[in-house]
Write a structure and sequence with these properties.
Largest sheet: 2 strands, antiparallel
Strand order of the largest sheet: 1-2
Number of strands: 2
Distance between the termini: 57 Å
Length: about 500
């Protein structure tokens, strides 16, 4: 244990490594806040600069950018209704209404503290239970990922506002958009209509910026003469009473984030959706309705997506399998530096495991420091006159979308999604289920087909596996509970 602590504290004791972790976190926060500039992109670019670096230096900077980037997406989600990252999409549902009520400072302050709590829970689970959770996630079969995707789509009830029917329509629209492009298993074209530009599909980040950012700009044009809302910046740091009140919910949703983050191929976006639904179910009478500025929704989203970072490191370090896109890039960096992540890492190179845990802890602490500073300046954004703010949002959206793949086609998709989102919002449709469908549709499609192939197209064997396997059965029961709950709410409405 003494050695573990020594390895853990390497990044804290060395001023240069400490500086790199802090620098990475600071940069990650502001990269994550810019729509289109994803954490994955930042880490990918970073790797090219770290070829000649010592492995400790490279890991310190990457851990900081990862932690900071996931948190940073909440800034623009709260202030402008433009999620800086997919995992911040759920944050916008209640964060932006709070900003419209003049509570942007309090919303950012509370989300920062709860992001720190979620990140800390993820790191503790990584340090204590990594081997056990890795063995558990390895037991997930393709049918379980299919069931998980179905469960995620059924969460449309939590994201669809007052009308479940409108939410289902938007989710189905999102699934349809997610199917455009090349078939991931056969490479055949689907819904491309002979267009070369459509073979690459619709990048969900471009769609997200369009449905949230550009659509919001069009809606705000109707209110161009209205004076900006003055933000209440007197209480940025949340009181201990408020933190204590919401801490149990934060710990619950952090647990959801760790588990979902540890599933290879998932990430903070799915974790935030599941956590948001959980918050709605355990808070039957919130002080403010969900979707209109409920602190419970904001806390669930931010705790879970930051906890998912620690969860994503679990399969990466113990199984050599990426938990999400960012850890897939980090695995590449480890290979470049001659390190083989996997089952033997804890026994052959324990110093790197505990060093990584120490770096993530330091980066999480930096989030608390950097996140609570500069809020007053950052919150001034929403007090800027709309005649200046709206063109700036459009420019940032175009630049961010183009930066994804250096593609003008993506910019066209963004504006197309923005126009569609404007009309949908005008007629009372929520756009969050569309993004949910775009993300989960391909996962559901591929997982279902792999599951059917694994039983040689025998439908009876496929159905039997769903009820005979404990994990599959638990997911089936969860689907049934959510479905019944959605139908009950729909009839009550």
């Amino acid at each position: 244990m003494a050695n573990a602590f020594d390895y853990f504290s390497i990044g804290w004791a060395d001023p240069y490594l400490f500086f790199l972790t802090a620098l990475g976190t600071f940069a990650g926060i502001y990269v994550g806040a810019i729509p289109g500039l994803s954490v994955t992109m930042a880490v990918s670019i970073l790797i090219s600069f770290t070829f000649s670096w010592d492995v400790n230096e490279a890991l310190a900077l990457m851990a900081g950018i990862f932690m900071g980037g996931v948190y940073g997406g909440s800034r623009t989600a709260i202030l402008l209704n433009i999620p800086g990252a997919p995992s911040a999409m759920v944050t916008a549902l209640d964060g932006y209404p709070l900003a419209k009520q003049g509570e942007a400072g309090q919303a950012i302050g509370l989300s920062t503290v709860m992001s720190f709590v979620g990140g800390l829970v993820g790191i503790i689970v990584l340090a204590v239970a990594a081997p056990v959770i890795s063995e558990f996630t390895l037991m997930f079969a393709p049918r379980d990922y299919f069931l998980l995707a179905v469960l995620g789509l059924l969460l449309v009830g939590a994201l669809s506002g007052e009308s479940l029917a409108k939410g289902i329509f938007c989710a189905a629209l999102g699934v349809s958009l997610g199917m455009i492009g090349l078939d991931p298993l056969t490479a055949e074209e689907r819904f491309t209509f002979g267009s070369l530009e459509l073979t690459g599909g619709i990048p969900y980040i471009a769609a997200m910026i369009g449905f949230f950012g550009i659509a919001e700009v069009f809606i705000q044009l109707h209110q161009i003469g209205i004076q900006p809302i003055r933000q209440n910046l007197d209480k940025i740091l949340p009181s201990w009473t408020l933190v204590k009140k919401y801490l149990p919910l934060s710990l619950q949703t952090s647990g959801i984030g760790v588990i979902i983050g540890a599933l290879p191929g998932t990430g903070g976006d799915i974790a935030a959706m599941l956590a948001y639904d959980h918050a709605k179910r355990v808070t039957p009478e919130p002080a403010t309705p969900f979707g209109e500025g409920a602190y419970e929704g904001l806390i669930a989203a931010e705790s879970s997506n930051n906890a998912a970072v620690g969860g994503a490191y679990i399969p990466m370090l113990t199984l050599g399998m990426p938990g999400d896109a960012v850890t897939a890039v980090i695995i590449g960096a480890l290979f470049i530096h001659g390190i083989q992540p996997g089952p033997l890492m804890l026994t052959e190179t324990p110093h790197l495991f505990w060093y990584t845990v120490g770096n993530l802890t330091l980066a999480n602490l930096c989030i608390l420091v950097f996140g609570l500073t500069g809020i007053r300046l950052f919150s001034k954004i929403v007090q800027c006159p709309k005649g200046i703010l709206l063109p700036v949002i459009i420019v940032l959206s175009v630049v961010g979308t183009y930066a994804i793949q250096n593609s003008v086609t993506d910019v066209y998709w963004m504006f197309g999604c923005g126009i569609l989102g404007y009309f949908l919002k005008t007629y009372g449709y929520q756009v969050a289920p569309i993004i949910l469908g775009i993300i989960l549709g391909p996962l559901m499609d591929v997982s279902y087909r792999r599951a059917v192939i694994s039983v040689q197209d025998d439908l009876g064997s496929f159905l039997w596996a769903m009820v005979s396997n404990p994990i599959s059965l638990a997911l089936v029961v969860g689907i049934a509970v959510v479905l019944i709950n959605n139908l009950r709410k729909s009839r009550a409405g």
